[in-house]
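User: quick one, fold this
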Amino acid sequence: MCSGLQTRTFNTSSTNSGWGVQKFAKRNEFEASNCLKNDAFTIKCTVLVLKGTRLRPTTPYGITVPPSNSNQQFASLLESGNGADVTFVVKGEKFRAHRCVLAAKSTVFNAELLGCMREKWTETITVDDIEAPVFKSMLYFIYSDTLPDFEQSSNNDGENKDLIFMAQHLLVAADR
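Assistant:
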């Protein structure tokens, strides 16, 4: 009973971060054993910490799930226009989009495109209060959860005016 040497491995990425004891001693057996000396007992633990060692997480049923690239797939869907069912006309420039994607990712578009607003029945929606490059960037963000790469042109002060312009207008558009 007193010389049970057990090795336990602790994995910080595991949801089970504790251990149980498989065999308990009854109190009278424990008090009668040679483990208790002067009403005290000692537990000896040796802890070894390995840095940099990573165990691969186990997957249910041995199936390895590939990392998601849905943001890239949605960006490609936007760029291709395949299956698009609504067109936005912004300052004369046309942008094809998908009602279901916009509705799923934006409560404003959900109300506008799937709710009781008149745009629900319209295939072409004219947008006058936003610049075309800003609208294009906003659509890209809605589809991909990332910002597009902006062309940057610096003025004499080293200030990236195009980037600042785009950021300001995207914030205004997102606030609507």
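User: anything notable?
Assistant: The mean pLDDT is 78.
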